[in-house]
Amino acid sequence: MRTLEAIRLLDELPQACRLWVARPGEHVDPTVDALRGVLRTAAYECPKVAASLVEFSDSTQPAALARTLLHDGPPIECAWQGTGFSVLRLVPGAPETTVTSPPEALVRPDGSYLISGGLGGLGLLTAAWLVGKGAGRILLLGRSLPSAEARAKVEELRKAGADVEVIQGDIGVAGIAEKAVRKAMSARLPLRGVFHCAGQLHDATIARIERPILDTTWRGKAEGAWALHRATTGHELDHWVLFSSVASLLGSPGQAVHAAANAWLDGLAAWRRAQGLPATSVQWGAWSQVGAGQGMAERGVAMISPTEGVDALERILGAGYPLVAYSPIDLAQWTAPYPGAARSALFARQLGDRQGKDSGSSLPRALRESASDAERQVLLEDHITDCVREILGGTSLRITPRTSLVTLGLDSLNAVRLRVMLENSLGMSIDGGILWTKPTAAGLTDWIMHRMGYREEQPA
Which residues of the chain have pLDDT under 50? Predict the structure, then answer.
């Protein structure tokens, strides 16, 4: 929350600036890893802050670290190890080597398997895969009572001969994980695998995140994973699998808390491996038909089909990858509305010369060459309206300069997109809260013209 508050404060400054998070690189700490999700999301929502991270060690030269902290450029995640300097880059394709050795048999008929979030779409899909592979016993842990659809799926698994038990409980609540582990082993089968699919998704921009949203998201994802770690200590497991999200890797506008919680999962997997314990964290993209990301298809995002996803899960576990992202996302398309994020050093290898370059908007020149403020007013109002239509998907609704953008459906995430579009086309900074105090094209135009110096009086 302190990092979010710092980003919000810096984002309100009229000039561009940089926020650095500095951490000692030799200490594995999932809590610090969670900040990566926040910083990567800030690149979309608050691009003028250039939120960055640097790791250092006791052998790092102070002068070298100081030069890094004075870096002027796009968001970057980097590390100093002695005199060696490295920058984090996104690399597509399967990892070249594995770090852990997978078991000879992925699924054992004499073993039991626990799935948190087991009554959700991804949990039930995982259960069906385990049943198909001959798992001896499966326990599905869900926060709520199973829906009619979930009950039908469970019955299908049982009719196929599977030993499936359902238990209700919030994995983030004390004692639930221990209870689930005991239940999973009640048939005297050793626990062989844990799949943590639980989690809640709350859309909220950085400007609007409050503590209750953070706590709710954190409990299911992070606290639930930690409870499973503690409850399974001492068990010889083949698999300890975390269903993370590609949001933790790429950042995701409107989902800073979701990205942070999943980045914490990634850090926990690294921490467990450092302790010699099994762990796999899969940063999934959006799935079709199941999962909380089904609505992403409406934004033109390529989806993972259930068949493809289950096949990927099996290949990931078979290869022994400890941390891997699986998503068919088109990065250029994903970052197109957010040039600040596209300039991030993380995406340099993928976007290359295309990264974050604006369209060379001629709008500022047209405003300068306009004959009067009345002409500038019309020019800006039309431009704002065009931006709103693009964001809302070409709505046929009539939009006048006095139409409230909120009544048209401009939510907090769309407001971020509008702000970024206006900043890019005008070459100026737009205050984050102004879209709510001036929620019409006419009101925004008045404010912009005052900020650009075309009007001396303060707009009402």
Answer: 353-359, 458-460
**SS3 label, residue 53:** strand
Q: Are 11 and 49 in contact (CB under 8 A)?
A: yes
Answer for the pair 421, 349: CB distance below 8 angstroms, yes or no: no
Closest CA to 77 of 352, 345, 339: 345
Which spans in 185-327 are helix H?
211-218, 224-231, 247-250, 256-274, 306-319
d(CA 403, CA 443): 10
**Intra-chain end-to-end CA distance of the chain, in Å:** 33
Using an 8 Å Cβ cutoff, are 123 and 154 in contact?
A: no
Residue with tokens 């009619």: 148
Backbone angles phi, psi at 325, to 5 degrees: -100, 140
**Rounded Cα gap, residues 420 and 428, in angstroms:** 10
Q: What is the pLDDT of residue 293?
A: 63
On whether the CB atoms of residues 17 and 247 are closer than 8 A, the answer is no
Q: Is residue 233 classed as helix, strand or coil in its secondary structure?
A: coil
Are the C-beta atoms of residues 117 and 199 closer than 8 Å to each other? Answer: yes
Contact criterion met (CB below 8 Å) for 52 and 17 = no
> What per-residue confidence (pLDDT) applies to 393?
73
Per-residue pLDDT of 8-44, as tens digits, reads 999 988 888 999 998 887 767 788 899 999 999 999 9
Run of H or E residues at 242: strand 239-245
Tokens of 363: 């709008």
Residue the block writes with tokens 């000039």: 15
451: number of Cβ within 10 Å: 17
The pair of structure tokens assigned to 179 is 């209870």
Q: Which token pair is 246?
A: 């590609």
> Could you give the CA distance from residue 341 to residue 50 in angstroms, rounded to a whole number?
9
Structure tokens at 107: 């699924």
CA distance 408 to 390: 13
Reported for 405-414, long-range contacts at CB under 8 A and 24+ positions apart, including other chains, are 405/435, 405/439, 405/440, 405/441, 406/436, 406/439, 410/435, 410/439, 412/203, 412/204, 412/205, 412/207, 412/208, 412/254, 413/203, 413/205, 413/253, 413/254
Residues 6+ apart with CB under 8 A from 39: 3, 19, 21, 51, 52, 53, 75, 77, 251
